[in-house]
Design goal:
Order of helices and strands: HHEEEE
CATH architecture: Roll
Radius of gyration: 18 Å
Distance between the termini: 43 Å
Protein name: Gas vesicle synthesis protein GvpO
Region (Disordered): 1-25
Strand content: 35-45%
Structural class: alpha+beta
Organism: Streptomyces radiopugnans
Largest sheet: 4 strands, antiparallel
InterPro entries: Gas-vesicle_GvpO
Shape: elongated
CATH class: Alpha Beta
Oligomer: single chain
Helix content: 25-40%
Amino acid sequence: MTEKTSNDSDSEQTAQDGRSPVPLGEAMRTARSEFTDLTGLHAESVSRFERTGDGWALEVEVMELERVPDTMSLMASYEVTLDEDGHLTGYRRVRRYERGRADSSRRG
């Protein structure tokens, strides 16, 4: 009797649907493009990403309102979900903050 590994499961999934899982970098580029197309906002950075049962979950940081000085610009974190192919399936704003202000209530 042999034990299945996660690589065996990935190989079986690839064999069943005829395609390989999308690499994370490619998924992030696709999501960034689709997010910008939908919202008009440009992701400055990705502060979190994790694999989910049916794709990926990311948290992206965007500038919503530019101010002078730059430390007063209004930033936002968006939770973005992607499917297995790396396409955006949903997003929601989870917080807003001034760029120069530390967020003592969050850990990370």
